[in-house]
Amino acid sequence: MKRFISIILGIAVVIALVGVGAKFATQNSSSQLAATVDQLNPLVGKDVAYVKTTKPVSVNGYGTPTYRQMAVDRYGRSRTLEFVGVKVLKRGRYLKIDHKGAYVETYTAVSASSVPAAARNELQ
């Protein structure tokens, strides 16, 4: 019985170490792999960030744009996020992005007055 408990605890420690390692490995990445890892990693928390729209990085044959932009949270901390838009967005508009690490869940257009001051100052 002690051996069984030791094995289970060992597996739990390995899983925890992999989760923590994955969190730090994807911390500054905006790739599709990082988004998938962050989406599945329970150690990565949900957050809100803001962006000021720019020109898309690419637009596929169906007119779907891909954006890679610096996003800033309410404290002024920045991170690069990559997301796909429904259509090409007007430049210079603010978006509120709900994300879990590099995984972008949703984005919503917001007014400049609803963007926290620290984020707005970084996005100028």
Short description:
The chain is of the alpha+beta class. The protein has helices at 2-25, 32-40, 117-123, and strands spanning 46-52, 58-59, 65-72, 78-84, 94-100, 103-110.
Features:
elongated; 3 helices; 124 residues
Describe this structure in words.
The protein has three helices and six strands, in the order H-H-E-E-E-E-E-E-H. The chain is α+β, with helices and mostly antiparallel strands. The protein has a three-stranded antiparallel beta sheet with strand order 1-5-6. A three-stranded antiparallel beta sheet has the order 2-3-4. Strand 2 and strand 3 form a beta hairpin. The longest helix has 24 residues. It is elongated and about 65 Å long. 19% of the residues are buried. The mean pLDDT is 87.
What's the gyration radius in Å?
18 Å
Q: Trace the largest sheet across and list its strands.
A: 1-5-6
Write the H/E string, N to C: HHEEEEEEH
Percentage of residues in helical conformation: 25-40%
Shape: elongated
